[in-house]
Amino acid sequence: MDRPEVPELAPPDRTLMGPGPSDVHPRVLRAMATPLVGHLDPAFVEIMDETQELLRYAFRTDNEWTIPVSGTGSASMEAAIGNVVEPGETMLVPTNGYFGGRMAEMARRAGGEVVEVDAPWGEPLNPADVADAFDEYQPDVFGFVHAETSTGVRQPDVPELTGIAHDHDAVVIADCVTSLGGVELRVDEWDIDVAYAGPQKCLSCPPGASPLTLSDDAMEKVLSREAPPRSWYLDLSLLEGYWGDERAYHHTAPVTNVYALREALRLVAEEGIERRWERHRETAGALKAGVEAMGVGLEPDDEYWLPSLNAVSVPDGVDDAAVIDDLLDGYDLEIASGLGDLAGEILRVGCMGHSARPANVSLLVSALGTALRDRGADVDVAAGAETVAERL
Amino acid sequence: MDRPEVPELAPPDRTLMGPGPSDVHPRVLRAMATPLVGHLDPAFVEIMDETQELLRYAFRTDNEWTIPVSGTGSASMEAAIGNVVEPGETMLVPTNGYFGGRMAEMARRAGGEVVEVDAPWGEPLNPADVADAFDEYQPDVFGFVHAETSTGVRQPDVPELTGIAHDHDAVVIADCVTSLGGVELRVDEWDIDVAYAGPQKCLSCPPGASPLTLSDDAMEKVLSREAPPRSWYLDLSLLEGYWGDERAYHHTAPVTNVYALREALRLVAEEGIERRWERHRETAGALKAGVEAMGVGLEPDDEYWLPSLNAVSVPDGVDDAAVIDDLLDGYDLEIASGLGDLAGEILRVGCMGHSARPANVSLLVSALGTALRDRGADVDVAAGAETVAERL
């Protein structure tokens, strides 16, 4: 217990093209350096209102119940599942990626029964399979992952999925961690009851306050639970007192993270949400074209390609961990390995928010091509670089 | 869902002398503006190690299990209670303040039974009462509040309390939210098994990553639970994979909040923890003397006075809410009202971390005296100001 001698904070200057966090815009960093006001200050209440309004815009929803949860994306996920799923209820979850498995785990801890609808890792759910699962299990809650960060798959046919669930009076929870602010997402139009996200993906905001939205009907279910949810910290009926009209103290909000989220969402509003989706398609499209021009594959079909998270196939004989290390050591460039069923099979390359820029994509394709070549893959680095230059 | 027009972030410039957050040091604000690295980056792993080492220093512990929990103080509180208390176990909690009640609520949600040891709001626990409660209930877990933010009471006799608990083989959980970094606290020497805190009190760090420490024995209890804890997000057996040697992904750590906490703790180490406790006693002592010189009372006895949170008696006939508004509107100065049994009885004046400075104390005593006088109290503002000037 001697007095530790720890040097001044000086982390390396990385370019973040992994599954998140993404590069943070300088305006958001500056917002985080703003001196604090109290979490019950009238000035902060106004900042809360503005943040909620901006969040509704990004989610494409009029839901009154749209808030940042005081924690990282997994906290907004547990707030959704832990409040909506009541003990003894059944939740239907997908098996086509890491985050469906996490949904199952959270539902069980909430006291729920879990049933599954299957699809392979790297493919989306088929609506027919979802319909079959509903007929077989009659679940109370249906969770699906709109943008699977572990596989780079975007779930198409969302309105069809929510339609099936609502025909069976189930509540729909959508994991939008890697889609909010980067990939087309229309909570109201697509009839999603509950959606949660992380701030550190396509919003390019440091993690710590995480978006969550619930429809009035979903919130009514939460407020009329027989037993309280098993987490006090994430109890939405208590948070209602703070974020609602009453402004009652529940816990100390992460003031600085709300400042940051507000600024990140201002950038979304300034750009325009649809223009922002388009920018992600354009820049990630150049990334995809560049990788393919080098002779390297991208895993998912074009039909369910997820611009914000690109699953690059690891060429035969290449050590994926070595490539990741080469990029970090040689270029200060972060990407990530595959998870679960796709470990060793894919490299996960994010293209999110402020990271979805020509400079980042250009660096990524050249550096990745070079590293793959150096590690024994047969890739045409020049063709990749040229394709990116033409596209951007 | 029109594009919202939200102005640039420009909160008022407050002086924070409430129950937290406190004023944040410019170096900590600057750390929050640092660009991010990934939460699995080797550079971040080093930052995690340094933060843990600094936390151990502040807690006065060698506990390996010393981490920041990814959330505000209530998250570290729920991580402590939700992991240690197993379904069917009994937790003994105090009734002498708001936060004992919150302990009870969290223990119930964890599946525990709750029993109580009584003391009035505004007084500490009496060890004899704790011993009686142990004899009567034989609880598995004993929680107490070292620094009660709702009443301004510091619990003395901590080694006596932990001794009683250990004689009965109970695990001791201490709420140190408002003591860590400001008031004498010796986790190892006092034999506290589990302690949690908030960063936004005496550490003067923005909320969002909250200190928690567990002894090896307490962690062994957590790791040998029959059923997993009811929160996935706060499951310490899973967090062990991330903060331990394995560095496995659990959730995305709030990178920026860890940067901030590290910097706030560096300031603690530079000052020296014992010198820092002394500074709190000195500056809060001047505050206390100034308030008393004006003819206004401070609630708790000197014996259990809590320097970081001063419970100023509301003079007869004075509207406490009006005084609070006057200070905010007229001086950009934040203090807070009483809670629960002490609502309307006390004003809560913090003196924490970077707020525990002569300039803040001087402003506080003069402004508070003036506001009380303007609202009808018989106070000697000049005597208060003079006393503060002499003491500081």
TrEMBL record, chains A, B:
GO terms for biological process: glycine biosynthetic process, by transamination of glyoxylate. Its cofactor is pyridoxal 5'-phosphate. Keywords: Aminotransferase, Pyridoxal phosphate, Transferase. Residues 37-338 form the Aminotransferase class V domain. Gene3D superfamilies: Aspartate Aminotransferase, domain 1, Type I PLP-dependent aspartate aminotransferase-like (Major domain). GO terms for molecular function: alanine-glyoxylate transaminase activity; L-serine-pyruvate transaminase activity. InterPro entries: Aminotrans_V_dom (IPR000192), PyrdxlP-dep_Trfase (IPR015424), PyrdxlP-dep_Trfase_major (IPR015421), PyrdxlP-dep_Trfase_small (IPR015422), SP_NH2Trfase/AEP_transaminase (IPR024169). Residues 1-23 are annotated as: Disordered. Belongs to the class-V pyridoxal-phosphate-dependent aminotransferase family. This is Class V aminotransferase.
